[in-house]
Design brief:
The chain has 218 residues and is mainly alpha-helical. The protein folds into two domains: 95 residues, no CATH class; 100 residues, no CATH class. Helix content is 49%, strand content 5%. A two-stranded antiparallel ribbon has the order 1-2. Helix 2 packs across helix 3 and helix 6 runs antiparallel to helix 7. The two termini are 16 Å apart.
Length: 218
């Protein structure tokens, strides 16, 4: 347990600085955590527009919205979002909104014949995953894991060339730098818009592309 204080207020956060209970969020928390998220000159009205859009979705649905949804809601592309939150969507905007990718994640995955076919093709192969379905050791990843997760994250069973371009890019960047690239970097380096990325990975950047690539932002 980590407690941070702000005046007479205290906030219980995890090791990444995310609120353990998103309902404890208030605007003071966002202001307090802004420097950690790379926002060193104070929160502007544009920052608050994004943060409040994220909180609005959480208040209405109990879930953390995907980067695509937030950008559409406030009329931003990834360049505009990056200018506001240079540390990333999850590590920046969502952090200041008191949320993480874990906030409101759905429960069990529905199974059907396609999943059974994938499992049969994998044979006895097994993977160690955490409670959220992310691979524990990124170096246990293989293409079979990607195929399984692609199915679970509402994607087509057969991954196309553009999917593999993003997946292999993420794997390569992680293997070189031991860090998952931000959504901004991925879009820029692969000449892909948020709209196209959403079409490829409809569950989101972290819960879709990164998970399929066997990685996790921790």
């Amino acid at each position: 347990m980590t407690i941070i204080t702000h005046g007479l207020k205290t906030y219980d956060v995890d090791r990444d600085g995310s609120l353990r209970d998103p309902r404890d969020w208030d605007e003071d928390f966002a202001s307090l955590m802004a420097p950690q998220a790379g926002v060193t000159e104070g929160l502007t009205s544009e920052h608050w527009q994004v943060i409040r859009a994220i909180r609005k979705v959480f208040d209405e649905t109990g879930t953390c919205p995907l980067v695509y949804q937030t950008c559409r809601a406030v009329g931003l592309g990834f360049e505009g979002l990056e200018a506001l939150f240079p540390s990333g969507y999850l590590r920046g905007a969502c952090l200041l909104a008191g949320l993480s990718f874990r906030s409101g994640l759905p429960g069990a995955i529905h199974r059907d014949s396609k999943l059974a076919e994938i499992e049969a093709a994998l044979g006895n192969r097994s993977y160690r995953i955490d409670a959220w379905g992310f691979l524990i050791d990124p170096f246990e990843w293989d293409e079979g894991f990607a195929a399984m997760k692609a199915f679970e994250t509402k994607m087509a069973t057969r991954l196309g060339d553009r999917h593999w371009q993003i997946i292999r890019y993420l794997r390569g960047e992680y293997e070189r730098k031991r860090q998952v690239p931000t959504v901004y970097q991925t879009c820029r380096d692969n000449d892909i818009s948020l709209e196209e990325l959403e079409g490829l990975f409809p569950d989101g950047y972290h819960r879709g592309a990164i998970k399929v690539a066997g990685l996790c932002i921790r």
